[in-house]
Structure formats: structure tokens, C-alpha cells
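Annex B. Sample input.
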Amino acid sequence: MHIRPLEVGDHPGTADLLVKTFGDFFEGYARPHLGEQLFEHQHGHWEQDYRDQLPTLHAPDAGRHAAVATVADGAIVGLVSWRVDAKAHHGDIYLLAVSPLHRRRHIGYALCQHAMAQMHASQVEVVQVSTGGDAFHAPARALYERLGLTPVPVTVYLGPIWLGRDEGRSVRKPTLGTPSGGRRGATQLWPPSLTARGRGEGGLRRRWWAAGSACDARRVSHLDGWSANGRERGGRHARHRLPGRSH
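Annex B, continued. Sample output.
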């Protein structure tokens, strides 16, 4: 196995890897769990969202990095992406995926170790990883604990705005719809890190309210020591990021 930086020519194969890796999560867990309307609003174009996101993952000048794991025939079997905040000495492993046909070969572990070594060389002191609390993400949680990271439980609540009663008058509970000029897309459930078009900061449309990070465990680890700035930064992420994916 060889680990190297993500290249433009890797995008088609890496997109296929992401779809194969997370298809069971989105279609087997998220769709029935959220229900059809909410799933369509949040993740209706999840496959295309991953394809659109790939060109943005590796931009070293902006503190964004991505690497792929390849086997002897050159096939891409794993991907890790991470972000570095040099000022806060804080790193975030943002996306981790391993081909279903190549699991249990320590590829995910090697990719995380590679990302952490690169972050360490950039003076990162604390690394954060986010993943789901559902059964699909159980192997990811075991991996991050094997890496020595500490779970921090967080719960997210997601649904249409319901104002209840207003000045003594009943307000009808809203149904879901697509805002004018927008499309149903993906904020982040698990997995990470989808950026939907037409959304404001935090990936939320105006008529939505979400708190925390759904079925999410925030994980923090020391590389060289604890950074108060890094801890504060992680708190901001917990407020503004809906759950996305790892592994």
C-alpha cells in the first residue's frame, strides 16, 4: 500500500470510492431514520455533493489537505482529508473512507497516522475527528479510540421549525419544501462534510433549526499538549457543524 497526496486525476475513482463507502449509511440508515421528506431536504443529492466536494479537499495554501491509499495495481482504496488551523495549533480529520473490499487491513489506521504526522509537522497540538454514533460508524469509533482519541458525546436535533402557539393563536406545524431558488441537498449528517449550495454559515437554510451534531461523538487528542485556542475552536465547530462522516 502507498499513501500519496490526492491529485486531480484521482477525482473520478475517489468519488466512486466515497459513494461505495457511504451508500449503506445514507440509504440504509439515514433515509429510514430521517424519513423521506427530511432526508431529501438534507441529503437528496448526497452522491453528487461528494463529487462536487472533491476538488476542494486538497488546497495546501488554504490549510486543506487530502491523501489517498493505493494498492499495487494503482487502484485507490482509501482517502483521508484534514484541515489545519496553524494559528490555533488545531487539526481536524474531516473525511475518512476505506473501500468495503479492503477493510480490516489497517488502511484507515495508516491514513489517520499519515494525516496526524503531517499535522504534527505543521505544529498542530490537538486533533479533532467527528463521526456517527450509529452502528454503521462503530468501526470508525473503534479506530479513533485505538488512535488514543477521547470521545465527547454530543446530540443533534433536526427538524422543521415548529413555533407552537403565538399570542394565543395556533400556528400550523410546517411541512418541508424547497426554498425558492434552492435545491434539496446535503448539510452534514454522517458522513462529513458536504457543503450544500444556497445555504448560509453552518449549512442551514433559514427555515431550519439544528443544534449540536447528530449522533455525533467529538473526539479530541493531545499530540504535544493541550491548546486553549484549539479547545475553544472545537466548541465553535460543535455549534455550527451538523454531523458529516468519517470512515
